[in-house]
Design brief:
- The protein is α/β, with parallel strands linked by helices and 449 residues long.
- It folds into two domains: 105 residues, Urease, subunit C, domain 1; 301 residues, TIM Barrel (Alpha-Beta Barrel).
- Strand 9, helix 8 and strand 10 form a beta-alpha-beta unit.
- Helix 3 packs across helix 5 and helix 7 packs across helix 8.
- The radius of gyration is 25 Å and the shape is globular.
Amino acid sequence: MTVRSGFSSPGFLVGLALSLAGAAPLAAPAAAPAAAATPPTTPTVTAIRFAQLIDGRGHVFPDAVVIVEGDRVRAAGGASKTPIPEGATVIDLSRFTGIPGMIDAHTHMTYYWDGTPGTNPWAQAGARSTAMAVYLAQENARKTLETGVTTVRDLGAWEYADIAMRDLIQSGAMTGPRMFVAGYGLRTAYQGYRPGYVEPDGGLADGVAEVMRVARQNIAAGADVIKMYGSTGSASDVTGYQTFTFDEMKAAADVARQRGKTMSIHSYGPDGARDAVRAGATSVEHAVDMDDATLRAMAKQGTFYVPTIDHNRYYAENAAVFGYDSAVVAGLDAYRERNVETLRRAIKADVPVAMGSDALFSMFGQNTRELLWFVKAGMKPGEALETATTNGAALLGMERELGAVAPGCFADIVAVEGDPLADINAVVGGVRWVMKGGAVVVDRTGESR
């Protein structure tokens, strides 16, 4: 907060002007009458009935009731032990299974494409103003909520568009999932010097000192997490050449830890992933072909693996839109298979895994398809669901407030058709109703699969 001298206050300047003109000074305004005391409002109480509730804390309650007061869960359990308070609003979802609102640990919410035939999403995004991108991204936010995802970790945007979007959602001016954001992703120099032309890049950092400065700058701007591009690889590029050194990664991780933030390092290849783990990253994104020593270290340290397998399926299936030829598609498909195999080995090594879609453009609305790959790699459906609830909350450091339907947690609750413990498709395609922070944001209870 900046405290200004009284000599610059508007009242002083007006009085001075009148005195110099020979006019009588203005009288001090009369005190405003005291406003009538407004009695505090009582939070609304809602009771929700489910056929069964998977609470995210290891319990499954048949014939369940959840009591929501304001934006929090007050009680949850079997109907016989969870009485409905007198006067509560009752929502009957007894045809459905209740699960916690899910967490997508890797999105790019402000990357919007309007779907105009013949346009390239990347080119369209590059030509659009940041203010327009934030406004249009409301559609991405809506589609994300419709998948049952009520919280995202958004890992990289230009000109702090993600910070603006997070704050708009938090203030109630925009409807969307709860956002934990990174601001600019840190990246090394990626283009040659062009005399007379300067392109500002708030994420550009080469060397330890620059990495520390840019990390601190992002935190000062309001970032919740530091994102670092520790290797090449993105979109059609499936190379994984390490970019930042271990010392640079450690510098960023140290800044994040000192400021109470988390640290995410993008690495398509094993080398950047190995150094990311050594440096103390909270999570490693994408990486394939990680060696056994790296996987053991991740399991020991609790470093999360966010595989983002499905985003390469998305690029391959939309090759015509992005202008990718058959050779690019073959590379994407081959990388995806290596991604699945690396996840399979990570599961066996007890590495903590969190669901991240890497959704952007028209991939929003498909956020939870990642869970299908997790089951393919060897997880049971219930374990896959945990990656999007329990594990996602732990990755964010929000275990007490997110990822569970339990007293004290945010009332982020999803109703799905079917049993997610038997078939993960109940989650991927069966979301019928979504509550975020005690407010119903999706109601498709009249639909069926």
